[in-house]
Amino acid sequence: MDMLELLRKQTTTRKDEFTAGAVPDELVETIQSSILQTANASNRQSYSVIVLDREKAGRLGLPGDRAFVFCVDFHRLYACARALEREFDSGTPMQFVTALIDVSLLAQSAVLAAQSLGLATRITNEVYQRNPDELFAELGLPEHRVFPMLAVSLGVRADPRKKQKGRLSRKFLFHEGRYRIPDDRDILEIIGWYDSCLLYTSDAADEFR
To answer: Which CA distances in Å does 188 have to 86, 185, 198, 206?
Structure first.
Protein backbone atom coordinates (compact mmCIF):
# COMPACT_ATOMS: atom_id res chain seq x y z
CA MET A 1 0.00 0.00 0.00
CA ASP A 2 1.20 3.52 -0.80
CA MET A 3 2.66 5.11 2.36
CA LEU A 4 0.53 8.28 2.20
CA GLU A 5 -2.59 6.18 1.74
CA LEU A 6 -1.54 3.97 4.63
CA LEU A 7 -1.11 6.98 6.90
CA ARG A 8 -4.55 8.27 5.97
CA LYS A 9 -6.19 4.91 6.58
CA GLN A 10 -4.59 3.88 9.87
CA THR A 11 -7.05 2.17 12.17
CA THR A 12 -6.99 1.33 15.84
CA THR A 13 -7.74 -2.13 17.20
CA ARG A 14 -9.23 -3.13 20.53
CA LYS A 15 -8.45 -6.23 22.54
CA ASP A 16 -11.42 -8.20 21.28
CA GLU A 17 -10.90 -7.41 17.60
CA PHE A 18 -8.24 -10.02 16.85
CA THR A 19 -9.08 -13.45 15.46
CA ALA A 20 -7.27 -16.66 16.41
CA GLY A 21 -5.30 -16.43 13.17
CA ALA A 22 -1.54 -16.83 13.32
CA VAL A 23 1.06 -14.29 12.21
CA PRO A 24 3.74 -16.06 10.12
CA ASP A 25 7.32 -15.85 11.37
CA GLU A 26 8.43 -14.30 8.08
CA LEU A 27 6.10 -11.32 8.59
CA VAL A 28 7.49 -10.75 12.09
CA GLU A 29 11.01 -10.85 10.66
CA THR A 30 10.00 -8.45 7.85
CA ILE A 31 8.71 -5.95 10.41
CA GLN A 32 11.91 -6.26 12.45
CA SER A 33 14.18 -5.64 9.48
CA SER A 34 11.97 -2.84 8.15
CA ILE A 35 12.13 -0.65 11.25
CA LEU A 36 15.89 -0.74 11.89
CA GLN A 37 16.48 2.57 10.10
CA THR A 38 13.96 4.49 12.20
CA ALA A 39 15.33 7.88 13.27
CA ASN A 40 16.81 8.09 16.76
CA ALA A 41 18.90 10.56 18.75
CA SER A 42 22.64 10.51 18.00
CA ASN A 43 22.31 6.97 16.59
CA ARG A 44 22.35 5.64 20.15
CA GLN A 45 19.35 3.35 19.63
CA SER A 46 18.56 3.54 23.35
CA TYR A 47 15.96 0.81 23.09
CA SER A 48 15.41 -2.90 22.90
CA VAL A 49 12.39 -4.82 21.61
CA ILE A 50 11.20 -8.06 23.16
CA VAL A 51 9.22 -10.26 20.75
CA LEU A 52 6.49 -12.36 22.37
CA ASP A 53 4.50 -15.30 21.05
CA ARG A 54 0.77 -15.65 21.69
CA GLU A 55 1.17 -17.54 24.96
CA LYS A 56 3.64 -15.14 26.53
CA ALA A 57 1.77 -12.08 25.24
CA GLY A 58 -1.41 -13.48 26.79
CA ARG A 59 0.27 -13.80 30.17
CA LEU A 60 0.94 -10.05 30.01
CA GLY A 61 -2.65 -9.31 29.03
CA LEU A 62 -1.72 -8.49 25.43
CA PRO A 63 -4.09 -9.70 22.69
CA GLY A 64 -3.27 -10.96 19.21
CA ASP A 65 -0.88 -13.66 18.04
CA ARG A 66 2.40 -11.78 18.59
CA ALA A 67 3.52 -8.72 20.48
CA PHE A 68 6.53 -6.42 20.53
CA VAL A 69 7.44 -4.84 23.86
CA PHE A 70 9.48 -1.66 23.33
CA CYS A 71 11.85 -0.84 26.16
CA VAL A 72 13.94 2.18 26.99
CA ASP A 73 17.35 0.53 27.26
CA PHE A 74 20.46 2.18 28.68
CA HIS A 75 21.93 -1.12 29.86
CA ARG A 76 23.65 -1.82 26.55
CA LEU A 77 25.16 1.68 26.36
CA TYR A 78 26.27 1.50 29.99
CA ALA A 79 27.96 -1.86 29.38
CA CYS A 80 29.77 -0.47 26.31
CA ALA A 81 30.94 2.58 28.26
CA ARG A 82 32.19 0.39 31.09
CA ALA A 83 34.11 -1.82 28.65
CA LEU A 84 35.77 1.32 27.28
CA GLU A 85 36.44 2.61 30.80
CA ARG A 86 34.20 5.61 30.18
CA GLU A 87 31.42 7.20 32.20
CA PHE A 88 27.80 7.03 31.07
CA ASP A 89 25.09 8.80 33.06
CA SER A 90 21.56 7.77 32.12
CA GLY A 91 19.95 9.31 35.18
CA THR A 92 18.98 12.71 33.81
CA PRO A 93 15.40 13.51 32.73
CA MET A 94 16.65 14.59 29.31
CA GLN A 95 18.23 11.18 28.69
CA PHE A 96 14.99 9.40 29.55
CA VAL A 97 12.76 11.74 27.54
CA THR A 98 15.02 11.40 24.50
CA ALA A 99 15.00 7.61 24.74
CA LEU A 100 11.22 7.62 25.20
CA ILE A 101 10.84 9.62 21.98
CA ASP A 102 13.08 7.12 20.19
CA VAL A 103 10.98 4.23 21.52
CA SER A 104 7.78 5.93 20.36
CA LEU A 105 9.16 6.49 16.86
CA LEU A 106 10.24 2.85 16.64
CA ALA A 107 6.85 1.60 17.82
CA GLN A 108 5.04 3.76 15.26
CA SER A 109 7.34 2.40 12.54
CA ALA A 110 6.37 -1.12 13.61
CA VAL A 111 2.67 -0.23 13.42
CA LEU A 112 3.05 1.15 9.90
CA ALA A 113 5.12 -1.82 8.77
CA ALA A 114 2.59 -4.30 10.19
CA GLN A 115 -0.41 -2.53 8.71
CA SER A 116 1.30 -2.35 5.32
CA LEU A 117 1.50 -6.16 5.51
CA GLY A 118 -2.22 -6.40 6.21
CA LEU A 119 -1.92 -7.12 9.93
CA ALA A 120 -4.04 -5.61 12.67
CA THR A 121 -2.15 -3.73 15.37
CA ARG A 122 -2.85 -2.43 18.85
CA ILE A 123 -0.40 -0.07 20.55
CA THR A 124 -0.68 0.40 24.30
CA ASN A 125 1.18 1.61 27.38
CA GLU A 126 -0.65 -0.91 29.58
CA VAL A 127 2.47 -3.04 29.75
CA TYR A 128 4.10 -1.02 32.53
CA GLN A 129 0.91 -0.80 34.55
CA ARG A 130 1.33 -4.41 35.63
CA ASN A 131 3.09 -5.53 38.79
CA PRO A 132 6.70 -4.49 38.07
CA ASP A 133 8.29 -7.48 39.81
CA GLU A 134 6.17 -9.93 37.80
CA LEU A 135 6.71 -7.99 34.58
CA PHE A 136 10.50 -7.78 34.93
CA ALA A 137 10.68 -11.48 35.83
CA GLU A 138 8.47 -12.49 32.88
CA LEU A 139 10.55 -10.48 30.41
CA GLY A 140 13.93 -11.27 32.00
CA LEU A 141 14.78 -7.58 32.31
CA PRO A 142 17.78 -6.37 34.32
CA GLU A 143 16.94 -4.50 37.51
CA HIS A 144 18.44 -1.24 36.33
CA ARG A 145 18.60 0.90 33.16
CA VAL A 146 15.86 -0.92 31.20
CA PHE A 147 12.16 -0.07 31.35
CA PRO A 148 9.27 -1.40 29.19
CA MET A 149 7.27 1.52 27.78
CA LEU A 150 5.02 0.41 24.93
CA ALA A 151 3.65 -2.78 23.45
CA VAL A 152 2.39 -3.40 19.93
CA SER A 153 0.14 -6.42 19.49
CA LEU A 154 0.01 -8.06 16.05
CA GLY A 155 -2.69 -10.30 14.66
CA VAL A 156 -5.51 -10.80 12.21
CA ARG A 157 -8.36 -8.30 12.47
CA ALA A 158 -11.76 -9.84 13.17
CA ASP A 159 -13.61 -7.30 10.99
CA PRO A 160 -11.70 -6.06 7.93
CA ARG A 161 -14.43 -3.44 7.39
CA LYS A 162 -13.63 -1.71 10.67
CA LYS A 163 -14.03 2.06 10.48
CA GLN A 164 -11.35 4.54 11.32
CA LYS A 165 -11.60 6.78 14.32
CA GLY A 166 -11.77 10.43 13.41
CA ARG A 167 -9.24 13.02 14.53
CA LEU A 168 -9.38 16.68 15.40
CA SER A 169 -9.25 19.02 12.43
CA ARG A 170 -5.75 20.01 11.38
CA LYS A 171 -6.68 23.67 11.92
CA PHE A 172 -6.52 23.00 15.66
CA LEU A 173 -3.27 21.05 15.52
CA PHE A 174 -1.05 22.95 13.10
CA HIS A 175 0.17 26.47 13.85
CA GLU A 176 1.79 28.64 11.17
CA GLY A 177 4.99 30.25 12.43
CA ARG A 178 3.86 30.65 16.03
CA TYR A 179 1.42 29.15 18.49
CA ARG A 180 -2.15 30.35 18.08
CA ILE A 181 -4.14 30.30 21.32
CA PRO A 182 -7.62 28.93 20.61
CA ASP A 183 -10.37 31.46 21.11
CA ASP A 184 -13.81 30.80 22.63
CA ARG A 185 -15.27 29.90 19.24
CA ASP A 186 -12.51 27.35 18.65
CA ILE A 187 -13.06 25.76 22.05
CA LEU A 188 -16.81 25.45 21.47
CA GLU A 189 -16.14 23.87 18.07
CA ILE A 190 -13.72 21.36 19.60
CA ILE A 191 -16.24 20.47 22.32
CA GLY A 192 -18.93 20.08 19.67
CA TRP A 193 -16.62 17.80 17.71
CA TYR A 194 -16.26 15.49 20.72
CA ASP A 195 -19.96 15.65 21.60
CA SER A 196 -20.99 14.74 18.04
CA CYS A 197 -18.92 11.53 18.26
CA LEU A 198 -17.10 12.46 15.07
CA LEU A 199 -13.87 11.49 16.79
CA TYR A 200 -15.11 7.91 16.79
CA THR A 201 -15.73 7.53 13.07
CA SER A 202 -14.12 8.83 9.92
CA ASP A 203 -17.43 9.02 8.02
CA ALA A 204 -17.64 12.81 8.27
CA ALA A 205 -13.98 13.56 8.88
CA ASP A 206 -13.21 14.94 5.42
CA GLU A 207 -15.27 18.08 5.91
CA PHE A 208 -13.19 18.98 8.97
CA ARG A 209 -9.77 18.57 7.35
So the answer is: 55, 5, 14, 20
Q: What is the pLDDT of residues 106-161, one digit of tens each?
A: 999 999 999 999 999 999 998 888 888 999 999 999 999 999 999 999 999 887 66
Angle at alpha carbon of residue 190, lines to 189 and 191, rounded to 5°: 90
CA distance 205 to 174: 17
Measured in Å, how far apart are the chain's first and last C-alpha atoms? 22
Tell me if 151 sits within 8 A of 56, measured CB to CB.
no
pTM of full prediction above 0.90: no
Residue 39, burial from CB neighbour count under 10 angstroms (0-12, 13-18, 19+): exposed
